[in-house]
Write a structure and sequence with these properties.
This protein has about 325 residues and is mainly alpha-helical. The chain is built from 15 helices and no strands. It has helices spanning about 1-15, 15-30, 40-55, 60-65, 70-90, 95-110, 115-120, 125-150, 160-185, 185-190, 195-220, 225-245, 250-265, 265-275, 285-305. The chain starts with a helix and ends in a 9-residue tail after the last helix. About 50% of the residues are buried.
Length: about 325
């Protein structure tokens, strides 16, 4: 077990470099990673969510539901900060119609389950992160097409039933199972959680490899501008979330969760929506694909930074 813990510490410490190496390999030598199917992504996320469930206790969720203000703040920020940033950056950099549509779709989508993983690795408030992601995703069938229409003056069709079932399958059920097992077999799970970072990093690497390798040609043809927009969109989202948390005097774990939730989007959903909503704009899927890669890399770096940030004086 000690050997596994050392391996887990190594993966957690060097996660950013590992993800970056995997992304580069998938981009420049996609043939090496094409065996990883994009259809595996949800299952990989389910494994990670189950692992996170093993770390949660009833007290974590009691805190969230007895203080809904934090979730409300995260939801409002999610559907205002990221869409407006996407629109502003797209206009400032003069993106064409297809890329602008793709960037705005990334901005109007809810936070992704990757934010829950990064919050966990950052020692942030995981229960708050899961709560925000769940609520944001349930609001997305209404807010994503509405905000997209306001910004682009066009329509996006979202299947609310499919989205609802997706959040139940990928997030709620795996976490609930992990939570129940932790409740019934707490002594065993306490030993297992020490190696969970390894599983999380491996899952993220496989997700990145799948997304990049299957979209490598599109990614390579977009030029540097869209990369700059995607990177700035993500980093400014983190910064706005961090600033909001400090402005409202939130605790360190909650500030981490808010920052990560706002900065990391469900880019997989954005890529899927772009393909169906804008069939005549093939390049609209590219921003979502690039974001899928970049936010895992930046999230890994941020996790390393946030992991060292603690404030024991705060009890809020």
């Amino acid at each position: 077990m000690k050997t596994l813990e050392k391996i887990s510490d190594f993966f957690g410490k060097y996660m950013a470099f590992i993800v970056l190496i995997v992304a580069a390999l998938a981009l420049f030598a996609p043939g090496t990673c094409l065996w990883i199917q994009t259809s595996w992504v949800n299952y990989l996320l389910m494994i990670v969510m189950f692992g996170m469930g093993l770390t949660l206790k009833l007290e974590d969720f009691k805190l969230v539901f007895t203080r809904p203000k934090d979730i409300l703040i995260g939801c409002v920020a999610q559907f205002t900060v990221m869409p407006l940033l996407a629109f502003a950056l797209g206009k400032i950099f003069g993106l064409d119609a297809a890329l602008l549509a793709g960037v705005i779709l990334v901005g109007t989508c809810p936070g992704g389950t990757s934010s829950n993983v990064i919050t966990y690795l950052s020692k942030g408030d995981v229960a708050l992160s899961v709560g925000m992601t769940s609520v944001n995703t349930l609001l997305a069938p209404l807010l994503t097409p509405a905000i997209t229409y306001l910004l682009l003056r066009t329509t996006v069709t979202v299947d609310p039933v499919s989205m609802f079932l997706s959040i139940i399958k990928v997030v709620i059920i795996p976490i609930a199972l992990g939570f129940i097992i932790n409740k019934l077999f707490g002594k065993v799970t306490q030993k297992l959680v020490k190696v969970l970072p390894t599983i999380s990093v491996i899952a993220i690497c496989l997700i990145v490899a799948a997304v990049v390798s299957h979209n490598s040609e599109k990614i390579m043809t977009t030029g540097l501008i869209v990369f700059a927009v995607v990177i700035l969109h993500n980093l400014l989202g983190y910064a706005c979330g961090f600033g909001l948390g400090r402005l409202l005097h939130m605790s360190v774990p909650k500030t981490k969760a808010i920052s990560i939730e706002i900065g990391m989007q469900n880019s997989g959903l954005a890529t899927s929506l772009a393909g169906t909503a804008f069939p005549d704009l093939a390049m609209a899927t590219v921003p979502g694909a690039i974001f899928s890669v970049w936010h895992n890399i930046s999230g890994a770096i941020l996790a390393n930074i946030y992991n060292r940030w603690t404030d024991k004086s705060e009890t809020k």
